[in-house]
Amino acid sequence: MAAQASAEDAKLDGWVPSLDHATFVDWNRVYEPSEDTFLLLDALFADRAALRASRAIVEIGPGSGVVATYLAKLTRNSVLAVDINEAACALTMRTAEANGARVDVMRGDLCGALRSYSVDALVFNPPYVPTDDEEVGGAGIEASWAGGRNGRRVLDRLLPHVARVLAPAGRFYVVCVAENDPASIVSYLRARGLTGETVLRRRARNEALSVLRFVRAAPS
Amino acid sequence: MRLLTHNMLVSNAKGVSEAEGYPLALEVTEHRREETEFDVETTRKTMETVKYDALRGAARAVAIDLPEVYDGDDADLLRKVHEALCDVHVIEGCLVCPKSGRRFPINNGIPNLLLHEDEL
């Protein structure tokens, strides 16, 4: 049994869900997985034991759906993927189906339509690139990466919801770059009862990427 | 959309509080079932975050009758709960805000909870 489990894990280590069904038409409208996506997959793989104990798993901004699909395969559970972009919702559904993963898709704005204490694991790879604020949240492909001032415009809209939607044993994973000032994300959420740390970092071209993980602080 | 997802959703219509906007009423015009593996422990654990009354109401819309009171020691009930939560997919239908009546369509299995700009 243990040998079987580790053989399964070996397959998931470094695996990326197939995107053979996607075409250039999709990549004109949806973010194509890149180094940041792969870093997040690696961080989730490393935390597979805790994630497998999570029941309600939500990804915000799935884009192509690779992370949501990976999470569903990794945890053998269903995952809810929430995206504001209609093309991303449709592609996420196709990616899940092509890879035989159980993913529910909802069109919505961040966590606004999720009830309190409902999420065991929340995952977000936000548009983190520092840009002019005008580029944030547009209808074009730039909305998938344009993060506005300090690359924080979209993340800062989500952060107030994180402590609200996480279940008591909930956890939150977020991708960021150095320009996002990860220390200030940690201190913002610490003030709301969540303890954060960097679980993985990697330099990719001009980006100093990291994945932060937050859990509720034990009551003192 | 699975009913597990429905259980997590709340109306975000303007001026509607979470207590007023939960649960969303579920109207189903098309759904399908896809059997998944049932495990008593997993289902019991899942129920720790699920609101049973909301699940019971939603299950009624897909002709699954759940008893008024949840009993985590009842294996037959847990099997039914698992079917309702995981095996039912709503393909076409609507979610309705219990306070404002705002209707959120479900098309091709994807509920759309986005508000229009003039509703924000």
Q: What does this entry look like structurally?
A:
The complex is a heterodimer of chains A (220) and B (120). By secondary structure, chain A is of the alpha/beta class. Chain A has eight helices and seven strands; from the N terminus they run ααααβαβαββαβαββ. In chain A, helix 3 (35-46) runs parallel beside helix 5. The longest helix of chain A is centred in the middle third of the chain and has 13 residues, at 86-98. The radius of gyration of chain A is 16 Å and the shape is globular. The model of chain A has no long low-confidence stretch (mean pLDDT 94). Chain B has 120 residues and is of the alpha+beta class. Chain B is 29% helix and 21% strand. Chain B has four helices and four strands. Chain B has a four-stranded antiparallel β-sheet with strand order 1-2-3-4. Classes of the chains: A alpha/beta (220), B alpha+beta (120). Chains A and B meet through helix 6 and strand 3 of A and helix 1, helix 2 and strand 4 of B. Chain A: It holds the Pfam family MTS. Chain A: Belongs to the eukaryotic/archaeal PrmC-related family. Chain A: Residues 39-130 form the Methyltransferase small domain. Chain A: InterPro entries: DNA_methylase_N6_adenine_CS, Euk-Arch_PrmC-MTase, PrmC-related, SAM-dependent_MTases_sf, Small_mtfrase_dom. Chain A: Keywords: Methyltransferase, Nucleus, S-adenosyl-L-methionine, Transferase.
